Amino acid sequence: MSGQKKGKDRAEHFREYVTALNQQFVNWCTGQWERKPNLFWSSGMHDYLRHTAKIRREFQDILTDHTDANGTPIGSSPTNLMDARPAKYEPQLSLMPICHTKTIHFIRHGEGFHNIGINTPDSHLTPVGWKQAHTLAVHMASNPPCNSVQTAAGVFGLPHLPQTIAPPPDEEDGMDLGAPLPDQLLMRAQTGEPNVRAEHAALYLPPGVAFVAHELCRERLGPSHCDQRRAVSEAGAAFPGVDFSLIESDADELWSPGLVEGEGQVVKRGMKFLQWLMTRPETNIAVVTHSAFLWFTLTCFGNEYARPVRENLQRWYENAEARTLILSDAGGAAVPDVTWFKGGEAAAAGTA
């Protein structure tokens, strides 16, 4: 098949795909209007935008974000597939008070044994995964499953006790305080076991950093054992520096062998997790989590952006990949604005 014929077929398939999606969406909106005229329709909008993102990825050679002199989108016509001009993007500026934003460093866990075909419950990091985490640490709130907590420990944990909190010798009761205290340990040392666990030394809590586990940002639930988390009591013993108090049950009551979590369910808990992040007092937060959770959550955003911005936001995460995003809430969630200066009479009086 010639390149031109192949281009025409893809362009036609693209138009049919988009037409079918839009027709389905129109029918859904009509039904919602008849049944639920006084409710928000956010779930259907999320589904539509996810399908839109999928089409954009599949037909990125067809789509561009500008039009020709006649107003026809470049790339929608097969004759333009080979000679489309570089896209020209119009500015899409926006402003948001800083107190309604947070800087979020989204990180996918390092390589786990499940990533190399070993399907064990709550897989540990491989030696390569640990190396990825340590390399990322040089460059730069974790969730329940072990490989994410290990990645967080590898990135942010300290290989030795910080100088500022090293305990002095206690001469009164003779206790050896030179050994690390339990509340200073982030992760206990672990012994190696082939195809199960890599050997690693203990890691210690950095000053002023809270490690919090949250069930909402776990991986999409599926039939694989690697999607099952370990008991909180077991994880807490291995990671004494992580706060597991937000997890309600010790055993993993959400996972079962025959369950596959729906895409919409992943999106809903992703939105709940982002809302929870906005309630945190911190403004600079690292989230170490999983690829499918990240993809389903982040593809809900940016579909109106120019293609380079959208693709940078929505593309799939590699192991130990980190991207920094600004999370904002124009609906009102905020933290105290320490940068605000009152001005006016208060400034003149020296009380601003």
From TrEMBL:
Coiled coil: none annotated. GO terms for molecular function: phosphatase activity. It comes from the Eukaryota. InterPro entries: His_Pase_superF_clade-1 (IPR013078), His_PPase_superfam (IPR029033), PGM_Phosphatase (IPR050275). SMART domains: PGAM (SM00855). One of its GO terms (cellular component) is cytoplasm. Belongs to the phosphoglycerate mutase family. This is Phosphoglycerate mutase-like protein.
